Amino acid sequence: MTTQKTLLRGRILDFVAEPQSPEDDSAHIHIEDGAILIEGGRIVARGGFAEVNRQAGDAEIIDHRPHLLMAGFIDPHIHFPQVQVIASWGAQLLDWLNNYTFPAETEYADPAHSAAMAGRFYDQILAHGTTTAVAYCSVHKTSAQAYFAEAVRRNMCMIGGKVMMDRNAPDGLRDTPQSSYDDSKALIAEWHGRGRAQYAITPRFAITSTPEQMEMAGALVAEHPDCFVQTHLSENHDEIAFTAALYPEARDYLDVYQSHGLLSEKMLLGHSIHLKPREIDVLVETGARPVFCPTSNLFLGSGLFDDAGLRARGTINAIATDVGGGTSYSMLQTLNEGYKILQLQRQRLHPLRAFHWITRGNAVALGMEDRIGTLAPGSDADIVVLTRAPPRRWRCGWSAPRRWPKSFSCCRSWAMTAPLRRSMSRAHRHEKGAAGRFRPRSTGLIGWASCQRRRSSIPSSPQSCCWLDGSSTSWFIRAMMSSTDKASSWAS
After folding, report:
1. For residues 451 and 131, is the Cβ–Cβ distance under 8 A?
2. Which of 2, 284, 391, 450 is the most exposed place for a label (fewest CB within 10 A)?
3. In DSSP terms, which residues pair with 136 in a beta bridge?
4. 400-439 burial, b if ≥16 CB within 10 A, otherwise e?
5. Residue 457: its pLDDT value, please?
6. CA 198, 290, 240: angle at the middle one, nearest 5?
7. Residues β-bridged to residue 398
């Protein structure tokens, strides 16, 4: 049986290293008339269209010109059970957890509810161009089962784990040290390495785990060193004070995790805002990854992440949405808010580094840059298309016939800052436009993922378009999901 080949044509932006400045042309590859050849869910070739087309044979050609092909976005910190509480009003971290998050998570004891919400969750992230995420499930084994089952069904590269949480949570949301170990162990055996899925051992944070449960988490890490580990660190001053009261013997917040053997390059530490000098030393020594969550940090009033300070010490920092404390599934909106947080600290996030961060940069933080985050041959074919559109307001059409598809997801996502607009202008400049001249562009997302999805209600043609608000000050993404009869997913 011959594997079908697909050739995507369009402008290409890909990264081979982290750009050190806006003028650093050595870190990225930009091809005006480029092509990506896909076979068996992998990228076979990337380069100029004429060159790649010679290798394509009878491949189906999908022409995206003049739009921009990039690696799919990666979200390394998100909460699967918080779909329904995103941007809930009026509280800081601990109150927000008690008032909104915990009540919503109790519903995930129901397998049917978990399965239904897993479908909606995956629709949301794909609709925003995210093809890989690292997610917290609820304390219930059923939530992790649903999360991974959906990942395998769609053949997506997803990481996640059942939350371990045995105190300071309502009835129905607590496990025990032994049950958290047993459930996590069983989930690792069933799902880790199945399809493209990987497991993350997940003690929620120090406040919700007893020392006995932390010991069980450490045992899991020792037994499964190839698994990821994820938790929260130093998000909020009240959280830090509460942790100190619960763990009086700990030198600081990070020491709770360090003393139980959780720290390594596989460790993802959400937020990491209010760090002490010793904690930064330990992060550098162990290689544990801080994760910047800008929309959440602003919405909950938690604080400002010191990206430049940590990088200067040698840490590898990721950036993530943190939905539902975070207010958008869009990694582009996340960059938008991250830019502002860094500006408040006299730190610069130039556009090339921004786009590197949500692709190859986050892949490096996960130690997976050989598989995701780039368009290099051999990488998994997780690809998004950044589109430009004429200045028409809030219209969307299908290429043929011109109508809304029967099944779609839409959102209104973000307002782009001027530096990011200028970057997109450079990437999407008209062929006959004056060199260096700024021309506003509105941008949308179409995502090609190697995930598999079939919907009989969707037209067989994968060609779609989004027409957006073309104003120079407020560009919003209108998201539309579709898929083809060739079992490929498209998200915009």
Report:
1. yes
2. 2
3. 79, 161
4. eeeeebeebbbbebbebbebbbbbbbbbbbeeeeeeeeee
5. 29
6. 115
7. 464
What's the full length of the chain, in residues? 492
Q: Which residue has the tokens 């920092």?
A: 317
The answer to whether 132 and 157 have CB atoms below 8 angstroms apart is yes
Contact between 156 and 132 (Cβ < 8 Å):
yes
Q: Is 48 helix (H, G, I), strand (E, B) or coil?
A: strand
The residue whose two tokens read 């990666």 is: 74
Q: Where are the beta strands (DSSP E) in 306-417?
A: 318-319, 383-389, 395-398
Whole-Å CA distances, 152 to 129, 167, 190, 405: 18, 32, 12, 25
Q: Identify the weakest region by mean pLDDT among 96-105, 315-324, 326-335.
A: 96-105
* Domains annotated on the chain, with CATH: 5-71+375-491 (2.30.40.10), 73-349 (3.20.20.140)
C-alpha–C-alpha distance, residues 446 and 464, integer Å: 8
Is 343:294 a contact under the CB 8 Å cutoff? no
For residue 38, what is the DSSP state? Answer: E
Percent of the chain with pLDDT over 90: 67
The residue to which tokens 């892949």 are assigned: 363
Sequence-separated (6 or more) residues with CB below 8 Å from residue 418: none
Comparing CA positions, the residue from 352, 286, 278, 272 lying closest to residue 318 is 272
Give bridge partners of residue 388 from the DSSP assignment: 443
DSSP 362-394: HHHHHT-TTTSSS--TTSB--EEEEEEE-S-SS
Instruction: Read off the pLDDT band of 408 (50, 70, 90).
Output: very low
Rg (CA), the chain: 22
Q: What angle do CA 145, 146, 147 make, to 5 degrees?
A: 95
Select from 11, 29, 6, 25 the least CA-distant residue to 374: 29
Pairing of strands 198-203, 159-161: parallel
Query: Which stretch of DSSP H or E encloses residue 35?
Result: strand 28-39
Distance CA 62, CA 403 (A): 20
> Does the pLDDT value for residue 148 go beyond 60?
yes
- How far is 461 from 414, CA to CA, in rounded Å? 28
194, 196, 187, 195: which is closest to 162 by C-alpha? 187
The token pair at 299 is 């919405």
Span 280-303, average pLDDT: 96
* Beta strands per DSSP E along 72-113: 73-79
